[in-house]
Amino acid sequence: MLLDRQGSGRRWRIRPDGPGKVTGGLAYLTDMAAPGMLIGLVLRSPHPHALILDIRTENAKRVPGVRAVLTHEDVPGLNAFGIARQDQPVFCFDRVRYVGDAVAAVAADTLEAAERALSLIEVDYAEQPVLDSPEKALAEGAPLLHPCGNELHRTDYRLGDPEQWFKACTVIVEETYVTPRQMHTYMETEGGLFVPEPDGRLTVYSPTQHGFMDRLQLSRVLGRPQSDIRVVSSPIGGSFGGKDELNVQPYGALLALAAGKPVKIHNSRKESVRAGLKRHPMVISMKTGADAEGRILAHRVKIVADTGPYATLGAEVLNFATEHVIGPYRIPNVDVDSVSVYTNNGMSGEFRGFGGNQAIFALEGQIDRIAGRLGIDPWELRRRNMRQPDDPGPLGQPIAPTEGAAQVWQALAESPLWRERSQGVPEDDREREHWIKTGIGAAYIMHGAGLGVGIPDPAGGRLVLAEDGKIEAVFGYEEFGQGLIATLELMMMETFGFEAEDVRIVIGDTDVVPDSGSSTASRATSMLWKSVQNMKGPFTESLLSAAADLTGNPADQLRLGPGGVYAMPEPDAASGNDAGSMLLSYAELASRTTEPIRAETAFHFPTTSSKRIGAHFLYTYSAVAAKVEVDTLTGRVRLLDQYHAVAAGPVMNPQGYLGQIEGGSSMALGWTLTEEALMAGGRYLTNNLDTYLIPTVAEHAGNVAVRPIEELPEGDAYGPRGIGEIGSVGLAPAIAAAVRDAVGVWVRKLPIDPRELQDIPHFARKAVLQHDR
Amino acid sequence: MAMERHERFSLPKVWKPRNVGEAWSLKRSFGSDAEYVAGGTLLRTWWEGEVAERPAHLIDIRSLPLLAGIRIAEEGGTGIGACTTLAEIRRSCGLAAEYPALPEAVLQIGAYSIRNVGTIGGNVASGIGDALPALLVYDAELLWFDGSEERIAISEWLERPEDCRRDRGKLLMQVRLPDRANAVETPTGGGNAPFSVYRKVGRREAFTPSVATVAISAGRTEDGRLERVRIAAGGGAAVPHRLYAAESLLEGKTPDPDLLPLIHEAVEETFRPKGDVFAGEEYRKRTAANLVAAELWKLSAGRQGKE
What we know:
The complex is a heterodimer of chains A (773) and B (307). Chain A is α+β, with helices and mostly antiparallel strands and 773 residues long. Chain A folds into four domains: 29-128 and 184-275, CATH 3.90.1170.50; 131-182 and 278-387, Aldehyde oxidase/xanthine dehydrogenase, molybdopterin binding domain (Aldehyde Oxidoreductase, domain 4), CATH 3.30.365.10; 402-442 and 611-773, Aldehyde oxidase/xanthine dehydrogenase, molybdopterin binding domain (Aldehyde Oxidoreductase, domain 4); 458-604, Aldehyde oxidase/xanthine dehydrogenase, molybdopterin binding domain (Aldehyde Oxidoreductase, domain 4). Chain A contains 21 helices and 28 strands. In chain A, the strands form seven sheets. Chain A has a seven-stranded mixed sheet, with helices on both faces. A five-stranded mixed sheet of chain A has the order 7-15-14-13-8. Chain B folds into two domains: 65-177, 2-Layer Sandwich (Uridine Diphospho-n-acetylenolpyruvylglucosamine Reductase, domain 3), CATH 3.30.465; 195-304, CO dehydrogenase flavoprotein, C-terminal domain (Enolase-like, domain 1), CATH 3.30.390. Chain B has helices spanning 2-8, 20-30, 41-48, 86-91, 93-98, 101-107, 112-117, 120-125, 132-137, 154-159, 162-165, 244-250, 260-270, 281-306; strands at 13-15, 34-37, 57-60, 70-74, 77-81, 141-145, 149-153, 171-178, 195-202, 210-220, 226-235, 238-242. In chain B, the strands form three sheets. Chain B has a five-stranded antiparallel sheet with strand order 4-5-8-6-7. Chain B has a four-stranded antiparallel sheet with strand order 9-10-11-12, with helices on both faces. Chains A and B meet through helix 4 of A and helix 1, helix 13 and helix 14 of B.
């Protein structure tokens, strides 16, 4: 059944944070202000690559209203940050490696004074050759951007003997796929408010996907214990991976402590483009061979990723891509070589899909080409090669078994959209404006969740009966629009029988929440579910036994319900009106009980037993079909219809689930058709949303059908799988296949260049001579 | 030096002249330190993109009576005040009936919020606005104030070198459209009604800079031949212009599919687009030629279907 409002019944709810967001009433962290606050600005490098010879701040310091001017000399702790590897300077001191590199920062009473001071900081640079591509960075004699060289990370995976088996193939497809630098384009650009507290602590109100990681990183930079720092990190106006790494936080924190006053920093869109993370541009070359029946025998892959000037999560993204270029297929002979290269281009880093998008676009392109060459239906070819439930994962690692691969395959095969493809487009549709061509294509995806083997991936949470009688659900996850609060609220209602008003969600504040790990890698909902499962028994028990003590009823004859504790037996659902009598409200329970009522859980995200770093254990499967229209006059592509089958276990929150698949596919649509953060010579050519074009409502005219497949194997202990990213993965290859179906052109580079699909209409062509040979 | 720097960080002064003469005098005295402003939508993209520096003075021309409003069928034509917003043009029934390519062009400029404040005057004065091809095919004239009134055909004005188009502080007051034989167009251009059409291709479906724009207009004689054929193209940073070679291939002819290869070739050969990192000149030429040919093909097919 398709996921929609009607079919979801009472589970389709108005999200708790919805009204505030649509009315503008809700204050984001970057909307906050504090009395006497200063405005902070960061001076960034004008050059993609240069040596710093001298920095002079005297004139800037003399500007009236300026309270702090900071450089590398003013960093009390580690002058570097990075989630995985701390190689990005807070303030550059000897060299700048990209146009977003920070050299100095200013805090002043007004924006004007801060701008003026910034313009008076004098920096002497000696420009260096700009390594604006991985090829240049890897060339012999290229200047080294880091002491370890210009390779951030190199990895590989080998199985069997591809070279030998290519000789046995009936068909071999070789192609190179090129994908663009995509911007997250969150509505709320990076920023925050940084407040030195009277007790000497620092409060950081700044969006991030993992408050505790920011606290750890800031403690290194500031040279202070983590307990001296409080990070308030939600609500967030969009992140998509882009705010997981530190951005303005080191500058706000240092300025606030130096000036002894609150400091606000909020990036303009232009500064956000210049300094912020992007999706890794990748060039993926593949050679894939199959026998006459379409069984893939050998697969060789080379991945080159442009990671920009600093590490952040570039190595982890490359590991993910390396795993996902093998995908949902059983391939006996595999050889993958991957490298992530430092350049003087913009920063690449974490982005929804995490390297899977690029990998699957290339892999699915190969599968479709092989099907085309062999004359086998492309979906049938996938069936012949798909992983079976007990097969290992792409890297040979044991994974949690599910029927997901076969389930989504079957769902797509039976979908109206795919059936329309086999039936063909009605003639009169084709004739009206015959330069408009339509086509349908599909893609097949498996996508790992969690951070993978070898990376700390803690999870957990806490349930508390608060003094005012609210049930507090306390987690270290973040709300960045995905609907985490709504999902947790519904989970609490459905698990315990509470009503919405009984529950208070507490997230995004390191002073009060446990470390539940990051809200990344499609993991938060899975970990919420597991945490609530772990705490269900103990928390119910302690609530009921406290109620038993107060009421004198035996605990085993009490139950939890809306508003309070009820006497058993449970009311007959059929009779409806008998809700039983409430013996004790949660407020009464809280005020009368003497023992604290709480439950807590802490565990690790489930991982495979393999030792392969980054290998995943939990996977979500998806099959995506897309119907497009190509206007051959202009070469432009329009998405008409899409279908997503997603096997991710039970749907925790229908609205959130649908939102994630639709929203993810919207990002994929941009990546496929219009979005590219263009650079030349290490400088951005698309500096704002005038030229960097995300899809508008006009691009979203078509239908999006989402079919969730909820069954899990009996005894599965892992519950709902992640769906935060998978919607962003499959649409691009499905569109590429649909374009091929429509106009016969194989797309290998994104965003699709209309030139490749453009044609002169037959009536405007000069008559062709008929007597050619 | 310090003074100059200070200027950069302060807001411009906004002047509110009471009449055209006063506005022009202000501009003359401040020179390049001042800009006329109405909606300001284009200026802001220039300042943001560092194409132009924010001037010290802005001369707000929105309350000048001569620059306001649409006057249909006035003195043998239609006058559109320079400060008429794009949204007003879009809503005008009179313009839709007689000059349908203009509201069609305007609908595809910016987004709702932009069209609510952006004006036709700004679109024209930029020299690259997407409304220009539509105005070109309707033989529009521009009424400027330069101490005295100056009237000039829009095609002639666009052919001037860029630095002569808005020299000496001249102020655009009105866009004038000559009568089109008072004929109301039918959507398909059937019968002997005059015909006009506008097409824009951008990098996305809406709220997008143009890559190529084309406009076509023609009258029709009783026996179905095309007369006063106008074809124009523009898009992006290109200064829109008429495509005379393509026009003359059609002038006096019935819309015949056999002409289309020649017209396609003429458009590709004579259109002078400006390429950029997003779309090269070749793509823009081909797109313009394809669109012109397809619109004319529809016209000929429609005619054949009728017969």
